[in-house]
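Listing S7. Sequence submitted for prediction.
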Amino acid sequence: MIKALIETLRPRQWTKNLVIFAGLIFDGQFLQPMPFLRVLAAALLFCLVSGVTYTINDLLDIEADKLHPQKRNRPIASGRLSKQMAISVIITLSVVSLVGGYLLSPRLALIFVAYTLLILVYSLWLKKVMILDVLVIASGFVLRVLAGLSVIQVAYFSPWLFVLTTLLSMFLAFGKRLAELKLLENNAISHRKALDGYTVPLLNQYIMVILTAILITYTLYTFSAHPGQSNYAMMLTIPFVVYGIFRYLYLIQSDLITSSPEEVLLKDRQLQIAIGLWGLSVLAILYFIF
């Protein structure tokens, strides 16, 4: 049962919560122990909140998941985890995360509540509405960034990073929709109603538009990464972003993957290297070189 419980909480998808560290890193506080520990605690608590929302979603989607070739093996859909146990987990983790969030910062607790309500509305209604389903996912990532900012004092956080967070999450979400269409084929609508409005050509167009916007937005961010300084060293990181985006685009277009973005991140070595080199170059530029 413990294994089924952990699987329901989706620890592999907790990689999404790494964006909580954005404010800490880009404000130059990553190497300061106290801010780092506060953001780390916020990230861990957000993992619990994420686990709660995943469990709620699985409870609401039992019948649809049973029709999905992969999701039918989830603990609740397959019967390995009872509904009663799932509800107990939801209540327990909700209390722990809210109390812990409030102790760190009352604003963080409010963000937890807002995120949970957003995902609840998404699970009940918005995930059935095309385009809105992706916008909700993007909003969730923005709330993650705000969660990291809520527990520390930040001197400067570029507005371009909020825009970039939104665009990147939309890019990943549309990519996931494309992978779902390819995997489910004629059964796509029975699993996710929003897929009824999506087609492969339409999703390809959405992805191209967002891809262009991401590259422009990130480039504009690099111009203002060091406010008040004539320093454009962050532009050196653009090639890693270009390669990472093109690599992910190649994977979803080549039928090599039919899984979620976080699964791709954990499996594709070239994408991991690109992200790693980007991260190292950002840290070097912000903390050691300039």
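Caption to Listing S7: primary sequence and predicted structure tokens for the chain studied. The two ends are 51 Å apart (CA to CA). Residues 105 and 287 are 27 Å apart (CA to CA).
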